Amino acid sequence: MSSIVLVLIIVVEAAALATASGLWLHQRRRAATLERKLSAAESTWASGGRATVKAVLETAALVRAKGIGGAIRSSIEELAGWAQVEQPDLRRLAARDGTVTIFFSDIEDSTALNERLGDKAWLRVLDGHDRIVRRKVNEHAGHIIKSQGDGFMIAFALPAEAMRCAIGIQTALANGDRRLRGTPIRVRIGIHAGVAVHREGDLFGRNVALAARVAAFAEGGQILVTPEVSAAVDDSTEFSFTDAGTVELKGLTGDYRIQTLRWQADPAAH
Predict the structure, then answer these.
(1) How far apart are CA 50 and CA 216, in angstroms?
(2) Do 19 and 99 have their domain in common?
(3) Does residue 146 share a domain with residue 54?
(4) pTM strictly above 0.70
(5) Among residues 75, 71, 70, which one has the least CA distance to residue 59?
């Protein structure tokens, strides 16, 4: 029996228990039984996928915190939704050779913009920016690893999809979202591909740091990529690159060659 089905069965039992009337002692006995089932489920699924464990533990915690009746008042739909929430396995997102394409972005001069606009207007700008990024990531089969402030860390299986996403973001920003018409923003993007360490829905390792440093080296409106990314589309006429030279990246030893991915509104493309 799948973990999702089992947790839903437990939830249904809770619903039946909560809706029973006039059987207080019976409810107490059933509640004890339900508690044992939840504890057993936690123990069993602790050796399974972390996303499933998260769903089960949240359901159990809700039942314990609010009581059976309170948990049900939070709605069966909500509990069922928790049971269905599963973070993608990042190992499955990797390409056949085990590499993952890592994409970092942030808004250029975001602190100064926040200071100039004030918090309320800045939040509207962030909302417009975030909507564009998330929409383009969904369109190109990416997975947002984390978002903090005005920046994103995103993973893709294929460098081509990461670059299409980057071009889509820059083009959408250049065309002007209604939330951004009064405050145009410039986003810098860096993309690198390599093997990364997967842990608890996050990516770690030298290649992640390299991708972040490439993004930090970019200017607003630029998409910088490493040779590992551009080499993946050598046979394609869809993408065009210009050499950005060899640079030192903060915290990393050695020199690194980077390239600019050209897009229509990019000044470097003309």
Answers:
(1) 32
(2) no
(3) no
(4) no
(5) 71
